[in-house]
Sequence to fold (130 residues):
Amino acid sequence: MGIGKDVLNYNKEIEASHQALAQMFCELIGKTIPQAEGKVWHGHPVWFINGNPVAGYSLKKSGLEVLFWSGQSFISPGLKAIGKFQAAGFPLVSKDDAKSLETWFKEAIAIQWDYANLPKKRALDKLTNF
Fold:
């Protein structure tokens, strides 16, 4: 599906030292999850599969932080739990993180909790069989 102009604009506006990593993220997710749609959501780039958020990043004081909405259920190590639901993330610090990102992007396709209906149901249900 691709990347929205709003994401491209977001990447242009962040510090130059972070732009290359943001671009790497965009290219890898486009290659690994071509069906995902990227747009700025709640002020940060987020990719969705059929309306369900699966991955994104934001600029923190410490640098770029990647978030996987269902990351606490991923098998591959390296993610840190974030929040009270199933999200997990990690700091994106170098292009050496590309291999881990690709692995987690593949898991993001297979392992999804239903965040799209969370406000209505007030609970997370499994969206995929894992």
